[in-house]
Design brief:
There is one protein chain. This protein has helices at 11-35, 44-50, 54-73, 80-90, 96-126, 130-146. With 158 residues, the protein is mostly helical. α1 (11-35) runs parallel beside α5 (96-126), α3 packs antiparallel against α5 (96-126) and α4 packs antiparallel against α5 (96-126). The chain has a domain at 42-148: Up-down Bundle (Four Helix Bundle (Hemerythrin (Met), subunit A)), CATH 1.20.120. The protein starts with 10 loop residues before the first helix and ends in a 12-residue tail after the last helix. The longest helix is centred in the last third of the chain and has 31 residues, at 96-126.
Length: 158
């Protein structure tokens, strides 16, 4: 019988995919961790967003979703980072600079996303009238009390 030979998949492709997914989850976890710190101190950013008026908060969440969708659509351009990371790991002699550069590229992507979200929150608050800002400040104080938000003591002052 004529058997059709099985085509072999490229083994590094699976590794690249797994690594890419891992880096994306790592990035998402870092942003999530900043936005939702656990413990009695809470998160200043999270409280700031929660204190916004309902419509502003919804708009900010929609825009945050758009920021994340845009970042996901740019993955094709950022495909070089996982390849560089894998190449550094597979090299006969480990290239710490290449490995660090690939990780730094992923970190810079997260920082761009964070900066865009920061700018959107700042824009939203900047557009408020004095009365709206005062109402926002009052709600924010309530958020702080509800979350028992306390600044962490400076270790240098101990």
């Amino acid at each position: 019988m004529n058997e059709i030979p099985k085509t072999r998949r490229i083994p590094w492709l699976k590794l690249a995919l797994v690594l890419s997914v891992f880096l994306n989850f790592l990035a998402l976890g870092m942003v999530w961790g900043v936005a939702s710190r656990t413990g009695p101190s809470g998160s200043l950013l999270r409280a700031s967003v929660a204190a916004l008026p309902t419509e502003e908060r919804r708009a900010l969440r929609r825009e945050s979703g758009a920021i994340w969708r845009e970042a996901r659509s740019e993955r094709g351009r950022e495909a070089a980072a996982p390849r560089a990371l894998i190449a550094a790991l597979e090299a006969e002699e480990f290239d710490a600079d290449a490995f660090s550069g690939a990780l730094r590229e992923a970190q810079e992507r997260l920082l761009r996303i964070s900066d865009q979200m920061h700018d959107r929150l700042l824009s939203s608050v900047s557009e408020m009238s004095l009365d709206e800002r005062r109402a926002y400040a009052s709600t924010l104080q309530e958020q702080f009390a509800k979350r028992r938000w306390q600044p962490r003591p400076d270790p240098a002052q101990r």
